[in-house]
Q: What sequence folds into this?
């Protein structure tokens, strides 16, 4: 196998991988999409909402805001986010206050709700750790590949949603694959 880095920046990574199969790059793509742990707001409690959107719509929008995933967090960890405002105002993801300074929104400019004069909203959202297997809001990146000029040569592309960098996502996906292969090998050796 030969690997060349074609593009590497804060939000995307493009690789040329030679000498591998479709099965390998597809398994890697799937692990990037649904095998890497990250935070997402999973439970929202709306205490007050006199705005133009139903509670469920606001909860859905809040749930899709990418949350930065620092090192040292994993399954079972929870962080509380609060959102509160009174119109006239447009509330953005940057207005979501966190209970843990290390865990914050990955993109501060996502509009959540626009409130008119005297309209109010107050809610809490609990961010938990999960993988894309639990739901799309837990997916840290988009991953694709395409076959190049001859069999066994691929261009592999990762675009991060902001929870972590694309290289870190790829590294975690590979580590997850390794651990799963070790577990299978251990069972087969019995």
A:
């Amino acid at each position: 196998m030969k690997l060349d880095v074609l593009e590497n920046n804060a939000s995307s990574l493009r690789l040329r991988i030679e000498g591998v199969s479709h099965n390998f790059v597809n398994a890697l793509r799937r692990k990037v999409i649904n095998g890497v742990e990250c935070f997402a707001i999973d439970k929202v409690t709306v205490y007050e909402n006199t705005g133009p959107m139903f509670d469920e719509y606001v909860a859905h929008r809040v749930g899709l805001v990418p949350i930065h995933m620092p090192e040292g967090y994993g399954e079972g960890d929870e962080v509380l986010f609060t959102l509160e405002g009174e119109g006239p105002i447009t509330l953005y993801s940057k207005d979501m206050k966190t209970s843990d300074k290390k865990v914050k929104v990955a993109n501060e400019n996502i509009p959540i709700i626009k409130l008119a004069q005297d309209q109010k909203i107050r809610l809490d959202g609990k961010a938990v750790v999960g993988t894309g297997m639990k739901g799309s809001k837990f997916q840290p990146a988009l991953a694709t590949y395409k076959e190049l000029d001859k069999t066994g040569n691929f261009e592999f592309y990762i675009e991060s949603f902001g929870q972590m960098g694309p290289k870190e996502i790829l590294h975690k996906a590979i580590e997850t694959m390794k651990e799963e292969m070790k577990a299978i090998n251990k069972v087969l050796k019995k």
Notes: Residues 3 and 17 are 5 Å apart (CA to CA). The chain has a mean pLDDT of 95.
